[in-house]
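Thanks for the sequence, V.! I ran Aminopeptidase N right away. Repeating your input here for the record:
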Amino acid sequence: MRNENLTRDEASHRSALLRIDSYDVHLDLSNAADPELAAFPVRATVRFSADLALGAETFIEYIHHSIDAVRLNGEPLNRHDVVEGSRIRLPGLRAENELVVHGYSWFSRTGEGLHRFLDPEDGRAYLYTQYEPSDCRRVIPVFEQPDLKASFRFSVTAPAAWEVASNTTVVSSVPDPGDEGFSKRVFAPTRRISTYVTAILAGQYHAVDRLHRPGAHGGDPIPMTLYCRQALREHLDAEELFSLTSAGLDYFQGLFASPYPFGTYAQAFVPEYNLGAMENPGLVTLTESYLHPGGATRSQLEGRANVVMHEMSHMWFGDLVTMAWWSDLWLKESFAEYMGALAAAEVGGYEDSWVTFAQRRKAWAYRQDAYSTTHPIVADVADVEAAKQNFDGITYAKGAAVLKQLVAHVGFRAFVEASRLYFARHAYGTADLGDFLAALEESSGRDLRGWAEAWLRTSGVTGLEWDPGVEGGVRQTPSSDGTLLPHTLRARSFRLRDGRLEPAGEGELEVPAEGPARWAEGGLVDAADLVLLNRDDLTYALIGLPQRHLDAALAAGATLTDPIDRAVLGSTLWNLVREGRLDPARYAGHVLAGLAGEESATLLEASLGTASAAILDYLPPERRAAPLSELAAALRDLWDAAEEGSDAQRIVLAHGLRIARHAPELVQLARDVVAASAQAAPDDAALLRGLPVTEQLAWSARTALVLQDGMGAEELDRAAEARPGQEAEIGRARSAAAIPTPEAKAEAWRRLHNGELSNDLLSATAAGFALGDPALSAPYAEDYFEELPRVWEERTIGMASRFVTGLFPGVDSGVDVVGAARGLLPGEAELPRALRRLLTERIEDAERQLRVREAWATREG
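Predicted structure:
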């Protein structure tokens, strides 16, 4: 019986009926390292009160392997009567209740619940939990909704030599009387927190400890810990991470005028992670991709610093004060996205963090907002399945962009003071949009209800374009739903002299929802060759360019001296490509012309990514060869010219190997990488022109050689056996699925469906399956569409989502993928809402590709 999709109405009823006091939970992970065991024992005691005037029955959720016993207020309940799918019915409630459940929970390989990873490199076992938004119930029985906070006390039995961690510190460790090789770790009770941010970590982790000592803002010392797999211990740059963490703790405690709420601060870098990171109070989990065996670019380090600060800000925005329901998900994610970029710049020393936000994160928002499935920042979330789909570019990047606009509108000081009021009033509780607006209106002295209604409860993105022919000089076009918005922004004009764009004037202005723009100060030059309307990226809008300005931008945009200006212009041009208003080949040529002089690692990496997409996604096949060859030649030249060990060298090699999958001109580069890897001893680092050749790079090269140079399965197997490990498993899965033969595609399709692949291996296999001659994967398109409803029914939402997005047939397959997919939507009236949304977005991606390709099939401009 599938009844896992908790609705908002059901949650509202439980919120009114119940108050949860505590959970006392024991997990027995004694045999977790045995891959033959599918489940582990769990005992949970839940204490809660009920308002009997509102009812005497409710349910608790538990997605279980099996249940041995259920006792309510000392009385055993008949399991056959009360266990209904993933819910346990609780009849005959009292004013005060105690529920005890004994059961078995599944080990996970999907990244949802308690994920178990057995390292192929050394056989060690690693486990961690991941719950957001509603997967705590995969491990323990819980009332799984954010507003039913409680205190949790965990205990875990595991091998005595293992590291075991949770949201709080261990208060006792009790040896197993029957076997001294095992012990029971008992943790201190937590403060009142939501179910989805509880956490357990267990396994043969490498751990490093430090103590954060209070800075200028005072507070208590905070124990800090870092965890990673043993295979990555030499790549855990602990001193850098501890320094960054300490700086962040000082910064946020001072900014929010609120001490860190949760006592200890651990960060675990874990394998096969579905997310970038998760804000579990006291035990943040992060993908181990943030550790860099071959060294990191400044852009990569900035990205990690952003995430570390993002999750740390969640200790206040999300954990201390939590949204009451998922419709206000933005109350934590938008704020943390904004705070991550802010703190990475302010205390991390990464001045390009807002450049990254403008060029890359907002691209995610603009893409999401272009779908028919877009939604307001404050979304209408009917159930937890819909909530899972709303962890998207609207909630994160658009929400943060709108917060940046809010700060421009009311001032940073008022914004910070509102945050302080919000935390003080709602600590360890929940809140909604009205609560934050009340604090913001108090701190700013302004009525913000109209502003909030316009920005937070509408969807789509408005357009802004410089037009000296209209009053105020700025023309606004409505969003797809007809909305016009108030904008506070800065603008700068430039003149083109000797091939360079030089500043000519600037000013600050307000663009109201109705009426002409009003200049607060300064002004622009009417005869400008380029007007950069959204200088400093203060607002969220699609910026248009008159033809003369577009020509100047394409000719000399790379000469803008300020990286944030180049980022805003780059974002503008990329959006014009996606809208079909700029020839993708012309855009790619503009990017290539500026690559050699680009000093920002962030912009170099982002520009290479969009240039590649412009050619491979948006150019029709018959126009692709020349631009692709030019891109390959540019990458080869950049590789030859790059300083050894530089950011540019790392970025160019990674992109070059990906483009080598499509461009024979780069095959020799892939051969050089594989040869360098093969020549190094198994325990030594391979080097190519002074750059470490990581296993990730070596396997990216092998994927290219499979497609372009005839590398086969036997060579892949030998390479994986020579250097076993997680990267080898992922690389071999992708490369084997990419082999351009019908037999390899058939084997990949079988593996994708047999249910044995972990989350990362499924994604890698799907990625390889999609590579190469589209005619090889085209025969599976019909099966894909036929199987979607069954896949969604049988797999977890996370794994099913990987299947839907990773295997959606490409528009080059020769199959009418749009027609086939649209045919499924009306024919399947009962398609789950989340599946319908994913499928709709894939359809609209394909339609956009076809529309842009058709626009530029025969003409250039």
